[in-house]
Amino acid sequence: MHDNAPHILVVDDDARLASLLKQYLSDNGYRVTVAETADIARQKMGGLAFDLMVLDRMMPGEDGLSLAKSIRADQIASKTKPILMLTAMADSGDRIDGLEAGVDDYLTKPFEPRELLLRIEAILRRAGQETTSEVCFGDYAFNVAKGELTREGVVINLTSSEQILLKTLAATPGVPISRDNLSLSSGAQGRAVDVQITRLRRKIEEDPKLPRYLQTVRGEGYVLWAD
């Protein structure tokens, strides 16, 4: 492992899971530091530089949601510490709370280790490429922070559900997201996600039946392809 490999801070009070994450991420080329509580995480951040934080939500003392909010309140830290929240809290409201707190992505337990790795790679790639939270595809630009979609500078109206759906997809462009995870983010149940996807395609695709940007990945879900 190289000294310049991305450094990840795993914050989770589950010692077994934290150990497994450290081993798995280390095996895949990352430097990993573990903290059991928010207080310990702050101590680690005070002395070390991290490229990304994998943050549990439910912890003794200060929870992950509060820690994420406090990091985002620090303008300097918020620009240098992307956050992926990893939690067993799977309700749509919980996911929305996390996104509103400023986390860059939200993955529910149990999870596939490969999906976690892909999401981490996407977050780090985006953090290295962008100084703004804008994702572009074709003539369209989506400001993730504002939830604003434009085409050649003209704002395209989105419903709140479409906005949340696009935010979730744009958080990890190129990474398929399952219908279940999209359901958690948008609040839609089951096939209702497919209906929302169809409506969104009508707004961003030249031919919604042959989508170029918002595609279906058989057996995995949906993916947004950015430029």
Any key phrases for this structure?
Rossmann fold; 9 helices; 227 residues; 43% helix; Arc Repressor Mutant, subunit A; five-stranded parallel β-sheet; alpha/beta; four-stranded antiparallel β-sheet
Describe this structure in words.
There is one protein chain. This protein is α/β, with parallel strands linked by helices. It folds into two domains: 7-129, 3-Layer(aba) Sandwich (Rossmann fold); 134-224, Winged helix-like DNA-binding domain superfamily/Winged helix DNA-binding domain (Arc Repressor Mutant, subunit A, Orthogonal Bundle). The chain is 43% helix and 20% strand. It has helices spanning 15-27, 38-47, 64-73, 75-80, 92-100, 113-129, 160-171, 179-186, 192-204, and strands at 7-11, 31-35, 52-55, 83-87, 105-108, 134-137, 140-143, 148-151, 154-156, 214-217, 221-224. It has a five-stranded parallel beta sheet, with helices on both faces. Helix 5 links the parallel strand 4 and strand 5 (105-108). Helix 5 crosses helix 8 and helix 7 (160-171) crosses helix 9 (192-204). The longest helix is centred in the middle third of the chain and has 17 residues, at 113-129.
